[in-house]
Amino acid sequence: MGTYLLRRLAISVPVLLGITLVVYVVISLAPGDPVDAMINPEMAASMGPGYIEMKREELGLNQPILVRYVLWLKEVAQGNLGFSFMDRQSIAGKIGERLWPTLRLMLSAQVIALCIAVPVGVMSALKQYSLLDYGATILGFAAISVPSFFLSLAGIYLFSLKIPILPAAGMVTVGQEPSLADALWHLVLPAVVLGLAEAAPLIRYTRSSMLEVIRQDYVRVARAKGLRERTVIYQHALRNALIPLVTVVALGLPRLLGGTVIVEAIFAWPGMGTLAITAVRGRDYPVIMAINLISAVTILLSNLLADLIYAVIDPRIKYS
Amino acid sequence: MSQHQHLDRLHDDVTPRGLSRRGFMRMVLTGTGATMLGAVVAACGQQAPSAPAKPAEPAKPAEPAKPAAPAAATTASAPAAAAKPAEAAKPAAEVKPAAGGASGGQVNIHWTKPLTLNPLFSTAGLEQGVERLMFGALVRVNDKLEAVPDLTEKIDVSPDAKTYTFTLKKGITFTDGKPLTSKDVRFTYERAVDKRAATYWRGRLLDIQGATEYGDQQAEKISGLETPDDSTVKMTLRKPDATWLLTIGDFSGLSILPEHILKDVPPDQLAKHAFSLNPNVSGGAFKFGKYETDQYLQLDRNDNYTGGPKAKLDRVFFKILTPDVALAQMDRGELDLMIVPVSEMDRMKKNPNVSVVSVPSPSIDFLAYNMQRDYLKDKRIRQGMYHAIDREAMIKAIMQGEAQLVSQTIIGPDWMGIPQLNDYKFDPNKAKQLLKEGGWDGSHTLQCLYTPGGSKERDAYMPILQQQFKDVGVNMEIVSSDGTETARRRNAGDFDLVQVSGGIFRQDPNVSGKYMETINWVPVGGNYGHYTNTRLDELFPAGRATPDKNERQKIYTEAAQIMNDELPWLCLWSPNSIFAVSKKLVGFKPPSYATHNMWNADEWSVGG
User: Fold this and answer.
1) How many CB pairs under 8 A join A and B?
2) Hey, CA dihedral for A282, A283, A286, A288, is it positive or negative?
């Protein structure tokens, strides 16, 4: 197990390098550069003719892409994410203050997704082709098909305007002492929207996995032993059916991270998604790279996590 | 080179500084071709015009009315509907200030995400507006964009408009109790012109004698900036400038920074210093409360304010929201003031708790020609293209009447007026004839740079322009790209036409010079099309150097005639600034420049 872990981590390093290299090259090739984005003609005029070139030089944009990449890598290897081109603030600080809001949203959404997906998936499987099964299928497909920005806006319309019980945006009520209740109240809508989108595929996975398991011999044996149906389902069938789900959930974390970008933008949620969009529009390379690095690490870790948990919960699987 | 002073107004619109939420939403939404919430919410407005707007804050902080406070606020008498543009220029559209007004209460304003709160570095109008509430300045501009004294009790201008002497009010202090003196003014101006600090203000202040030398570290001090005593600041300019007060008073005015807090910060570290997002010592009617990243900014009343009457509100919240969410919050009463796009105006009017006011803005929507293109050089081609488009119909249909036809850029202020010139009425036949005379052979497809998503109205009129040009034989391709790429191509001269919206042309006719003089060619100025006219290059500097308004009017009228004939820009119209104001907000006066909307927040109160 230990060697397996080491080997996996070792493999992750070149993968990570590859990802960052590709991203770096692609964003550098995007039309326009940070100086185009932020240069103010007035500023250019007052700073004299060489100002734009000077600014490019100061930001290191006059060097070839690969040289810039290596320099960036060297800094990152020393734990320095650098400074934002746009507002000259430290990137670690910028990300630090936005990480928790994003995590809060992501984790709540994941919990909501599981709370919906597992019971609904199990019931669909047990009562296959019933009204409930069809209903869950249709709703599931709807939730997958409807983009999250639509759900968000529809949610705001329904629950903040028509039936004004939830806030339209934000993480806390402006001008009020922070309280847990207030924070939860603001969390409901974005987390449910994100959770619904995430729950839909999970319902399908749970259902098919459950269907497969309840036809297995050991379930039949359990029934033949005369165990109560509840024990058969929850002790024997469900536990095995959930094994593939673990993988799906772990692998779904990066997707969830992507989904928060849009939901955050709509709900004015002060997280990393909002930061990412700002950075892309301003061609703020260091910030884009830092966010990409974090996403890439999340993806690689999620994959690793999925494999490890798999080994823990399924004794048949052994890594050596 | 103070002639660059107002370019930022344009660049608020055309460069992508930070996330434009509307832009992002548009990005997401255009994918489906449906602006969902807009449609959904519009439906709501129709179905339930009197939907109860539930107050967001359970209870307003019930500040016990101070004994000294005047009687309770009177209810705002709101205009029934948006005033017509013509009337709106007068205070007809104004929400009546309360007689006295109540002390206390809070107000929520729709705001943008700030990059900085340090007045030396802010480039966005909404940031500068907030800074103006927190800091004091020598002069500031009012709702009509005139420069008025702020922390000064007297401003003496020499007859040749070369020397300006400011006398500070007596006994003024910063929020920490330290006195605000001419030394702080000098410190602020020194930092502002210091090349190492790379401030936004440097360019406009280089007309002070010796500013360039000081900024380049060639001199110990700015020779044209003298502070004989604690309350006197004397500025001597390199050349006469009748518009100087507008230059240093632009919007927030150059706010006075506390020397005792910032004097030890190296100039090149000033921008990233913690003060930039935590300006906790200032000299304005409000003081910094707190900034919650990407959520809101809170300003509290400065109870020790000495620069004038104290503010009435306890605090103001500036909320960072997408426009769609802001509209929803406005409907729910969680927001008291926002700038409203034309497309949402009618829906807002249906809300009984909200007034919608509209006033003419100082900005213009225009297409700038690349004057370096041989095939666009004959002015008859540009005149022909002008006759090809039906601007009056577009104002009616797309702008819902909320814009005024302008055919060149000298459009105010009141003493200047708008010279009556050729309006280039819609006339396709004349257009074809002029194009023919100008030698247009149709062999070029004109590339028009455009950044979509800025507003629904712009997205709507661009294809109409394209079609109407086509009808007279001019093919135009709309090259849509994000702001950064548009800026790159524009600066590189890689275009035939570029669409731009903005500017504060109505403030002073001199503003047009920043876009028309040869010295202002991009990328160092706002002359996008590299236009050159030797007569204009004489007229604009002459206008600046002339204090007499009648003389100036003559000079600028000639400039307007030249621009109206030569048409370096195809001016479409000047759109109105439209605001939604909750009826509980008393004392709001609509400023002509929209992002200047909190300009008199120190006079606001809540009532009703």
Assistant:
1) 205
2) positive
DSSP for B220-255, written as a single string: SS-TTEE-SSTTEEEEEBSS--TTHHHHHHSTT-SB
Task: Find, among B269, B306, B271, B268, the residue nearest to B287 by Cα.
Answer: B306
Q: What is the pLDDT along chain A (320 residues), one digit of tens a residue?
A: 788 888 888 988 999 999 999 999 999 888 878 887 776 655 565 555 567 777 788 788 888 999 999 999 999 989 889 888 887 788 998 898 898 999 999 999 999 999 999 999 999 998 889 999 999 989 888 888 888 889 998 998 899 888 888 888 888 888 777 888 998 999 999 999 999 988 988 999 999 999 999 888 988 898 898 888 888 888 888 888 888 888 888 888 888 888 888 888 888 888 888 888 888 888 899 999 999 998 899 888 888 888 888 888 877 877 76
CB atoms within 10 A of CB A76: 16
- Distance between CA A220 and CA B454 in Å, rounded? 64
Q: Which domains does chain B have, with CATH numbers?
A: 3-49+361-575 (3.10.105.10), 106-318 (3.40.190.10)
Q: Chain A contacts of B198, Cβ < 8 Å?
A: 43, 47
Q: How far is B129 from chain A (nearest CA, A)?
A: 19
CB contact at 8 A, B489 and B483: no
Q: H-helix or E-strand containing B296? A: strand B296-301
C-alpha–C-alpha distance, residues A106 and A112, integer Å? 10
Distances (CA, A) of B287 to A185, B64, B554: 30, 21, 45
Which residues on A lie below 8 Å from B15 (Cβ)? 37-40
Tokens of residue B63, six digits: 């500040």
Main-chain phi, psi angles of B377, to 5 degrees: -75, -30
Q: What is the Cα–Cα distance from B339 to B317, expressed in whole angstroms?
A: 15
Mutation test of the interface with chain A: which of B9, B14, B110, B115, choosing the one with the most A Cβ atoms within 10 A? B115
Nearest CB to B526 within list A41, A52, A164 = A41
**Which of A46, A59, A61, A95 is best to mutate for the B interface (most B CBs within 10 A)?**
A46
The complex scores an ipTM of 0.78
Instruction: Give the bridge partners for B366, in sequence order.
Output: B500, B571
